[in-house]
């Protein structure tokens, strides 16, 4: 039994089993859905009208796992962003001490853009 409910995005999956199961969901027998990576019936093949309790619990479990993975990736990206800002501030101090005005200007502009993006 499939551990999650298939969706149209699975037609673009790089995992062969997931992709094959998504292609098998096709109710229109359109041979191009799998090749094109989208449902030619406007997603009708993947519409789920009502879930059983077991399907709903499996979907919730899958979504919790996906949320946890997304949180970890977000934390990693945020850490890398803060690391880049710290390194640029250090480079700015070095440029200021060495009297490299052009480099200092470029670093200040870059920091302004990154810090503005951090506040948004």
Strand % is under 5%
Low-confidence parts lasting 5 or more residues at pLDDT below 50? none
- Helical percentage: 55-70%
Query: Roughly how many Å apart are the termini?
Result: 44 Å
Could you say which overall geometry the principal axes of the C-alpha atoms support? elongated
From N to C, what is the helix and strand string?
HHHH
Q: Count of DSSP E strands?
A: 0
Q: Structural class of the secondary elements?
A: mainly alpha
The average pLDDT score comes to 85
Largest sheet: none
Structure description:
With 120 residues, the chain is mainly alpha-helical. Helices cover 65% and strands 0% of the residues. The protein contains 4 helices and no strands. The model has no long low-confidence stretch (mean pLDDT 85).
Task: Give the gist of this structure.
The protein is an all-alpha fold and 120 residues long. Helices cover 65% and strands 0% of the residues.
Topology summary:
Blueprint: H1 16-24, H2 33-36, H3 53-98, H4 101-119
Helix pairs in contact: 3-4
Attribute tags:
4 helices, single chain, elongated, mainly alpha, 120 residues
């Amino acid at each position: 039994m499939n551990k999650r409910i298939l969706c149209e995005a699975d037609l673009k999956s790089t995992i062969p089993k997931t992709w094959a199961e998504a292609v098998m969901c096709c109710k229109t027998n359109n041979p191009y859905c799998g090749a094109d990576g989208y449902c030619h019936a406007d997603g009708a093949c993947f519409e789920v009208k009502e879930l059983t309790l077991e399907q709903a619990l499996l979907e919730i479990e899958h979504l919790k796992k996906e949320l946890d993975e997304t949180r970890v990736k977000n934390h990693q990206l945020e850490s890398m962003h803060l690391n880049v800002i710290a390194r640029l501030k250090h480079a700015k101090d070095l440029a200021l001490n060495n009297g490299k005005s052009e480099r200092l200007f470029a670093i200040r502009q870059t920091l302004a853009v990154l810090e503005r993006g951090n506040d948004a």
